[in-house]
Amino acid sequence: MSHRTALAGGALLLVSALALSACSTGGGTSDTDAAACTPSEGKVNLTFTSWLPGIEDAVAIWNDENPDIQVEVQTGPNGNGGTYKNFFNQIEAGNAPDLGQIEYDALPNFRVQDGVVNLADCAGILDAKSNFIDWTWNQVTFGEENAVYAIPQDIGPEALYYRADLFEAAGLDVPTTWDEYAADAAIIREQGGYITNFSQSDINAFAGLVWQAGGQWFANDGESWDVTLDSAESTQVADYWQGLIDEDLVGTVAPWTDEWNAAYNSGEMWTWVSAVWGANTISSGAPDTSGKWAVAPMPQWTEGASAAGNWGGSTTAVLTGSKHPYEAAQFALWLNSDADALTAMNKSANIYPATVDGASLPAFADGLDFYGGQKIYEVFAEAAKNVNPDFTWGPTMTQTYTDVADGFSGAVSGSGTLLDALKTGQDKTIAALKAAAIPVKG
Amino acid sequence: MTAETKARRRRGIRHPVALAVFLGPFTILFALFYAVPIGYAVYQSLLTVEREGTFGKATQVFGGLTQYVQVFQNEAFWSAVLRVLTFGIVQVPIMLGVALLLALLLDSPLVKGKKFFRLAFFAPYAVPGVIAAIMWGFLYSPKLSPFTAITGQVDFLGADLILWAIANVVTWVYVGYNMLIIYSALLSIPADIYEAARLDGASQARIAWSIKIPLVRPAITLTAIFSIIGTLQLLAEPQVFKSFSSAVTSTFTPNLAIYSTAAVPNVNLAAAFSVVLALFTFALSFGVLKYTQRKDNA
Description:
The structure holds 2 protein chains of 2 kinds.
Chain A: H1 3-27, E1 44-50, H2 55-65, E2 69-75, H3 83-93, E3 99-103, H4 107-112, H5 134-141, E4 151-152, E5 154-155, E6 158-163, H6 164-169, H7 178-190, H8 203-212, E7 218-220, E8 225-227, H9 232-246, H10 258-265, E9 271-275, H11 278-285, E10 293-296, E11 314-318, H12 325-337, H13 339-349, E12 352-353, H14 376-385, H15 397-412, H16 418-435
Helix pairs in contact in A: 2-13, 15-16
Chain B: H1 3-10, H2 16-45, E1 47-50, E2 59-62, H3 66-73, H4 75-107, H5 114-126, H6 129-140, H7 148-151, H8 162-187, H9 191-199, H10 204-215, H11 217-232, H12 236-241, H13 254-263, H14 267-297
Antiparallel strand pairs in B: 1-2
C-alpha cells in the first residue's frame, strides 16, 4: 500500500466516522414514557420473540380471538444462548420485536440498558398485581410504585427429579438432606453411575441452590449495587459441590448437549435438581427412561426444613421501540393469565404459571406418564410456596454468568475451585459494572 | 512515477463516465460494507457511558481513549491473543507444510489420478466451517464418537488438548484451500525450466526442492498471511466447541472475548477490542510480508 492510498483510506474512515456521529446524535434512545400507552388506530401487527417450545399454539388462540391485533411469533435460542444478544442488538438498532421473552434474572440487565417499556400506565396492568404470585410481581416492578417492566409468565420452583427404579433397585431412600444426597452419591458411584451431573455452565442453576440456602448475590439500595457472589451461603454451596467434584461423585458433562442427553438417557445419571420446566427437558432428552422417573422435594441443608430454590422463569416484556405498547401489553397480560393460554403453554413446555390461580388449572391435577403417573405439579406447587420471595438479580447477569461459568469450567477440569470461580466472578462483575458506569460498591 | 503518466495526469481524467462505471460499484460497496462499519466501530470505541443511580438513564459521551485503556488492562483478552499466537506458530507451518507437500505431489509427473486427488483434498474446504466443527466435535466426543476406543482414553476436549483439537479441525478444513493456491502457482512455472533441469540430471526431488519451492514462495507467503489473519480471528470453531467442551471459555480467542463483551452489552469496549485486534492483525501480517520480501530481495 502506498502512502497516498493509506492516507486516502484514513481520510475516508474519518469522514464516515464523522458522518455517523452526526446521524447518531439525532436519534438518541427513545423514552420509556409510560404516558404514551394508548390504543393504536386500525389493525395492529405485533412481533413476539420467544424460545418456549410450542408457544405458537397459545398465540394462535389469541390470533383467533383478536382479528385486529395479530401476533407473529419468532422463535430463537434460549435467552443466554443468543436471544438476549439479539435483543440488545435489535434495541440498539431500533428494530426490536414488540414483545420478547425475558427471564427474571435478565430483566435488570434490560432495564439498565433502557430496553424494556414501563407498562404501568397501560390500561389494566397495575390492577393485575393481585393475579400474580407476590415475588414475581416484585421482580418485574423492582419493588417500585408505578412501575411494571414486564408481565410474569412462569416460575421455576425446584425439586429433585430422581430415577425411582434405580433407587429402589439399589435399596436407597430418596435423600431429604444434602448430607444424605452426598452419601448416596458415593454409593451410586460404586455402582458405576453418577448421582447427577454438575452443570458447570448453568450458573443460574447454581444461583437457585444459593437461593435455597438463603443467600443473595446482589443488593440494590437505589444508589449503588452491592455484589456478594462469595457470600457465606454461596461459599457453603460451592464447597459442598466442590467436595463432590473432587471425589468424582458427580458427572461434569457440558449441559444441554447431546452428550448430556445421552448420559441421562443411558441411566448413567440418577437425579437432577431442577426446576418444574426440567420435566420437559428430561422427557425430550432421555426418552428411553420414560416411566422410570419420580419427583421429590429438594434436599435440605437443615433436616426437616422445606426451603426450595427457583431456577428460571420468564416474563413477557414490551421492548423499547415498540409502536404499539398498549396492544403489546394487553397481549402479554392475556398470554400469562388466560386459562387457555396457560394450559396450552403447560402442555407444550411444562411451564408452571406465575399466576395465583394457575396452580388450580385442571392441567396441573394430572399425573404424567413419563413420571410413572405421579402428579408432579403437586410437588412443585408446594416448592413454589417455599421459595424465598426476595432474591435480587444483578444488572449484567449475562456477563456474571459467563465469567462464573468460565471459572466453573476450570474447576470441573481441575484448575481452581468453585469458590475461586465465584470470587473471580465477583471481581469481574464489579469491573464490568464500573466499565458500564453502573454505580457499585467495592 | 514515469514522465508519461505524469503528463497524462496533468491533462485530467479522459474518460470520466468509464471511470465511474468501473470504480463506482466497488467504491460504493467498499464504503458501505467496509469503510462505514469500521468508521462506526472506531467512533463507538471513543465513546463512554455515563449514568446516575442504579437504573439511571445512560448517556453516551465522548470518552477519548478510556476504552482503549481498559483494553490494554484486560488480561483475559491478551492471554487470548497469546493463545492464538501459540496456536498459529504451531498450526500454520504444519498446515502450509502439508499443503505444499500435497501440491508438489499433485504436480509431480509420477502421481496418477490427479483430478480425483485434487478434488478430494479440496473437498473439506467446501464443508462450511461450523458444520466441520460440529462433525469433529462429535468425532472427539468421549461417548458419542464412532471411535470411542480412542476418545474414551484420550480427552481431546479437555483443557490440555482442546487447542490442538481445534488446530486439527482448522488444518483439515484449510489444507486443501492452501494447496490449491500453491498448486496453481506451480502450474504457471514454464515447462522449459524443468526440461533444463532434467538435462542437467536433476531428480524429481531435486527439481521440487531447488526449482519449484523457490518459485512458489510468493504463493506460500500469501497463504501464510491469510492463515495468520484467520488464526487471530478464530471464532466459529471455538464457538461450536464451547458446546462440546467445558475447556473453551468465553475469552478463549480474542474474537470470542469481543463477542462476550458485546453480549454484556458493552458495545463501546467491544468496539475498542475490535479496533485493537484489527490493528494488531494488520501489523503482524504486514510485518510477515515485509520480512519475507526482504529475504526475497537479499
